[in-house]
Design goal:
9 helices; six-stranded mixed sheet; globular; about 350 residues; six-stranded parallel sheet; 2 domains
Length: about 350
């Protein structure tokens, strides 16, 4: 890797931005300068990184002068406004928002799955939705060998996927219920309506707003992003996305129908050899993925592997990953690592 990389993080004071900083340090990413950018409101804050003090600057077009890689996680509106400005000044933008994911000119990349797509970019590479990322990492080796005709997925998504306010709301409503008080929820579900429900001791079968077809925006992201990542518009994806009272770590129940027959032991062998996958599948020892233990980890954990009772080519699995890391910050840093490994930095 080159040692001459100038990096900017947009949204540096947010949960994902903070995770991006921590992941850069964890991976010993070879930056020579690191610029922390955020809203005007957050400008001036001081952040300690490896014993050094960094001052957060306002995210404005001029801030990207001399930047090689800009990691964006400050909301779609900010990305739409500032990503082109960063590109204009020579930066490669890796965007964690939904702003560019379905743009046909922008590659949507999960390095373990379609890493080569990143090298066809025009200045912007998009990070997929967190729930899509972990699912396609788990399904990729199966798709490559057997093909996939259909996916039915139910997600059990952590509060952190909706930001720090949702985490705070979960904790506050849990404490209220445990005291015997009526919980007052202020955040979830995040929608156009003002109606909110407590997440503590509850499950909300809504993430994002409902669309005309009855599916939520979150669910349709999984449909469209999966097809784009696999370059396969024929895959049928039926998702249900729910928010559960977990702080970090999304879980997914995934059922797939393959195009070619398979043996279960072959599936396990494929997954054991897959990049970024950890198989935890030992029913006799009650070993299976859990979000509590996946939190803080970079890998995607897969277990509860079993053939369908009625469909010969049917397979069920349980997939868990840290939604802030593999689902966001680590996937973005991973893209940056692969980019500079091949390109050396300048592009």
């Amino acid at each position: 890797m080159s040692r001459d990389v100038n990096v900017a993080i947009v949204g540096a004071t947010g949960a994902v931005g903070q995770a991006m900083i921590a992941t850069l340090e964890r991976r010993k990413f070879p930056y020579s300068t690191l610029k922390l950018l955020a809203s005007k409101r957050s400008a001036g804050q001081e952040v300690q990184i490896s014993g050094r003090t960094y001052v957060v600057e306002e995210a404005v077009p001029e801030a990207f002068k001399g930047i090689d890689i800009a990691l964006f996680s400050a909301g779609g509106d900010v990305s739409l406004k500032l990503a082109p400005e960063a590109v204009k000044r020579g930066a490669l933008v890796i965007d964690n928002t939904s702003a560019y994911r379905m743009d046909p000119e922008v590659p949507l990349v999960v390095p373990e799955v379609n890493g080569e797509d990143m090298f066809g970019h025009k200045g912007i590479i998009a990070n997929p939705n967190c729930s899509t990322i972990q699912m396609v990492v788990a399904l990729n080796p199966i798709y490559r060998k057997y093909g996939i005709k259909r996916i039915v997925v139910s997600t059990y998504q952590a509060a952190s996927g909706a930001g720090q306010r949702a985490i705070n709301d979960l904790r506050q409503t849990a404490q209220a219920i445990l005291r015997g008080d009526e919980p007052y929820a202020e955040v979830l579900p995040v929608s156009k309506l003002s109606k909110h429900y407590p997440l503590a001791f509850n499950i909300l079968p809504q993430i994002d707003v409902f669309e005309e077809n009855g599916y939520t925006k979150e669910e349709m992201k999984m449909v469209n992003e999966t097809r784009k990542i696999f370059h396969d518009q024929e895959i049928a994806v039926t998702p249900t996305a729910a928010r559960v009272p977990v702080v970090y770590g999304h879980s997914e129940s995934v059922y797939v129908e393959t195009r070619a027959p398979f043996q279960l032991e072959d599936i396990k062998s494929l997954l054991n050899a897959a990049d970024g996958v950890v198989v935890q599948d030992d029913p006799a020892q009650q070993l299976y993925p859990q979000p509590y233990y996946a939190a803080g980890q970079l890998e995607v954990f897969v277990g509860r592997l079993r053939k369908d009772l009625y469909e010969d080519n049917g397979l069920s699995m349980w997939v868990v990953a840290d939604n802030i890391l593999k689902g966001a910050a680590w996937n973005a840093v991973q893209i940056a690592e692969r980019w500079i490994s091949r390109d050396g930095v300048k592009h």
